[in-house]
Design goal:
The structure is a homotrimer. In chain A, 67% of the residues are buried. Chain A is globular, with a radius of gyration of 21 Å. By secondary structure, chain A is mainly alpha-helical. Chain A is built from 14 helices and no strands. The termini of chain A are far apart. Chain A has a single domain, classed as Orthogonal Bundle (Ammonium transporter fold). In chain A, 66% of the residues lie in helices and 0% in strands. The interface between B and C is large, with 60 and 57 residues.
Chain lengths: 409, 409, 409
């Protein structure tokens, strides 16, 4: 119980910061999409954080951390079950660090994040009902089982796979489902014309999108800083440094590379570069030196620019760039653990590859089954009329901004 | 002075989070009201936090914590008076926890909150001058005297009344004044038609309202987490878990119940359900198990839907739902301490009832005297012309958004 | 290594809060300017925080803290160089407080702030390219060298100059460059008419500006609280109290004084008064009693109202009031250390004067050389057509709000 009080304070603060990322995601997603679907996107995000926490309390936590298990799937029972000492009070020696309650809440905030990533990619044309069903299944069953493979002490942990804070366990888990989702959904009307050209559908509120990215960056102080799972001064502070430098390098690399390619100072690309840097450092934030963090983040920034163009080329429609940011940079960051830092080497690199492939397998297959079943039964896409007029009006009966007046100056 | 450094760190962080709730309240209130009154609402909120802190420094802190007193009213003198050790430095043993300065600032952030609750309810038709006078009196005199009855060690503390973080001492204190305020003010023009039907006056910026709710939830980590008054690992972390689960359950219950009643996915109701859950767990956040927190929050979510409809039925006009959220759920949460958790029982329940009734008595009577006097002297309601054209133009001579341009797509 | 864990936790939290100030600055600056230049301002702020951190890592940190040096300029080498113990792990005894990594990151967040101050003042007419060049030079060379004079242990430290958290070292360093910048740039078209009258150019989003100020205030918990450079309970908590009281007093004084002068409840002045209070307490936040903090902040509030009018009178165009807030109140707060608090006295006052003059000398001369050279080579001002149509369209090819629709009610 060394430093229990300090560890617990740090982990609670990090929990609060990860919670705050849900505001970051909400603002980013609405900012990069059209006004007519704003209420719908906010509703989805609020649904995810609230339902996500309840489900993680009911089943997720005990699916993800089942104790001793076969390495593939285990379940320690429904609900929370705080370990007690002999005198019937909370057993504070539980994990020699912070308390059971802090453990649950920190992990619960992570669980909801994976689903949020999907939300952005499928925005502006998915039906709310089927999306909510997907979220319930994905958060309560798929995310925790997949997570147990590494963080729960499962077979990938035995194989030496490393993922510090979730480039793969969180970001690619969301990213693979996003990829499957948009493949089955199809593009928004007007995204690609008859000749196959990509058209730009502009985001309606870039200030809120920018605020979202800065809030996400702030949240990453907790996402990565808390993944040390203690207040260890050296590891927590090194992690914050690598996190911030990778974010900076990702943003700057995206900015420079996109300016060269497109002769335009593209703020959106700058912002996505920051996020790509953050996602990519997440797998090994505790292993890297500052200069390695800058390299990993900088490469992520270039990947973002190419990735966004590549997704477009595939005729996939990802309104917020979620797949380039969370999936492609998540994979990159995971592999980078085998290339840079304390663990670098072929053996580690192959462990990382196995990890990436394992998560691809469970996430693609499960999200395909869920989305495909929903498509064949309820349908997953709104009508063309609803898409044209906006989901806010049809699903929610209200506008995001009810009475903006024109003031000519 | 055990864990002084740790306790002090935790309390300072919680203070910062409670401070940040003022941004949450500001955004929620402007988001749910009309554009033409935005500057006015922001002005009121900025007034409350700044003037509130100065008044709490001048008189409030020493009215609320007078030391030994008769249990009803006491005053330890004007200004702050830091306790000194023999060697003339700050006496750090002051309350065996955090420092005197932290104590003042944490409590000061709470004081301003009560007035903010009133701000939302009376929005869009109250005169700024009288409102500022009300705030000055209510924050500097009524809130601290009422608070002294329990947290200052007064007669309700002796009677066994329990209110962990202020379902009654903060939220209902604001809520009762809001109820009196809107009763004396009357409804906004256009809220009820001649036949007594309720009309919908839409909020002008739902993204900012949503951001406000998520910021308030974040702030509640400090509001409840800090009310442990130490960094005790078990109590602080349990409190965060019950707080977050009650918020989630409140939101989900409101969402489900309102969808059944109104066949509409109502984001505003979802958001108010979250706030209702938060307010209701506040009285006993340290006493409840996770499942009890979910029940308390879930019931609050249902109460919110019924409460909002009930306020409308009474022909009371509460633009942001402050009375359902802060008053009704505040009372519910306070009574729930006698129904659920470690203290449950008839004896505790009756103590809770006495507490609720005592606060109703002081708050209703004092806010009636203040508002009624103001109404009969200065008047508290703006002219019909001003209400129609907006308070921003008349009281502040500016618009919230000066040059939004129309971009047709 | 007494309290290393606690100190490090506190300093990391403060680092996160100072980082978050960049969102505050971004929202404040776009809120107080016109819609057509929003993307441009956001781009500049994102550029500053990302490039700023990378440059501070590459050269700034080692220019600012060169170890033993001549007191004017020193350089400890490129990149970060974490001190190692005999066993090749991080030397945690490094500065008897928090870790080397935390030290770098906390200071890095400060470095970027100085440039951000300039960004607001030169908004709406500066060319992006030259501005980026200015930022690179100012952050990587001028700010750290100037900072080394006091915080790096240079000649001003030897002379007894005191600047707790940077009224001079951060705020006036940004403020002087802002003053030079707008002098060389000239006013925005339409700010002053042919008869020399000042016209009002309204900010386009006051809710975001208000959010920016509250976020900045929150960030100041870290800016001043972290400048204690430990988690010392007495000093950190006193600092938060003086910071919050000065902010409150500044706001209230500005509000009252501007209401008397202009017969109008001016929200923008209220907000700038808060910022003025915060900047002015920053030099001596650890030295003042609560009542002294209120006096310093209150005087700053009056100074803000006069300062904004004075800048206008000089026919200087500072769209966000950066010079009144950061330069004038920065100087006032620095001098106030010689007038109020533990160090007050003529000797200290003259040290403060010497410090202010030294920073004026290096900042005015260096920023003049940079801006003047840029003006004579690349030009620093956009074309009249670009200024009229907006920098967003010309430099970035996009709008901040792409499809706001008119909803008549």
């Amino acid at each position: 119980m060394n430093n229990l009080v300090e560890n617990n304070i740090w982990m609670m603060i990090c929990t609060a910061l990860v919670f705050f990322m849900h505001l970051g995601f909400s603002l980013l997603e609405i900012g990069l999409t059209r006004q007519k679907n704003t209420i719908n996107i906010l509703f989805k995000n609020i649904f995810i954080i609230t339902v996500g926490l309840l489900l993680y309390c009911l089943v997720g936590f005990n699916l993800m951390y089942p104790g001793n298990f076969n390495g593939f799937i285990g379940f320690a029972g429904f609900g929370l079950d705080a370990p007690l000492s002999a005198d019937n009070t909370l057993d504070l020696a539980y994990n020699t660090g912070y308390t059971y309650w802090t453990d649950f809440l920190f992990q619960g905030m992570f669980a909801a994040t994976a689903a949020t990533i999907v939300s952005g990619a499928v925005a502006e044309r998915i039906k709310l009902g089927p999306f909510m069903i997907f979220v319930v299944i994905y958060i309560s069953v798929i995310y925790p089982i997949a997570g147990s493979w590494k963080w729960g002490g499962g077979f990938l942990d035995d194989l030496g796979f490393y993922d510090f804070a979730g480039s793969t366990l969180v970001h690619s888990v969301g990213g693979w489902a996003a990829l499957v989702g948009i493949s089955l959904l199809g593009a928004r009307t007007g995204k690609f014309d008859k000749d196959g050209n990509t058209l730009v559908i502009l985001g309606h509120n870039i200030p809120l999108a920018t605020a979202g990215v800065l809030i996400l960056w702030l949240g990453w102080f907790g996402f990565n800083g808390g993944s040390v799972l203690s207040a260890d001064p050296e590891l927590t502070s090194l992690t914050l440094v690598t996190t911030c430098l990778a974010a900076s390098a990702g943003g700057v690399a995206s900015f420079i590379f996109s300016t060269i390619l497109y002769k335009n100072y593209d703020l959106t690309m700058f912002l996505n570069g920051i996020l790509g840097g953050l996602v990519s450092i997440t797998a090994g934030a505790d292993l890297m030196s500052p200069s390695e963090a800058i390299m990993i983040g900088g490469i992520a920034g270039v990947i973002i620019v190419l990735g966004v163009a590549f997704i477009d080329r595939l005729k996939l429609d990802d309104p917020v760039g979620a797949i380039a940011v969370h999936l492609i940079c998540g994979v990159w960051g995971t592999l980078a653990v085998g290339i840079f830092g304390n663990l670098a080497g072929w053996s580690q690199f192959s462990s990382q590859l196995i990890g990436v492939a394992s998560y691809a397998a469970i996430c693609i297959s499960s999200s395909f089954i869920i989305f495909f079943t929903l498509k064949k039964t309820m349908g997953i896409r709104v009508s063309e009329k609803e898409e044209l007029e906006g989901l806010d009006l049809h699903e929610h009966g209200m506008n995001a901004y009810s009475d903006f007046r024109l003031n000519e100056h």
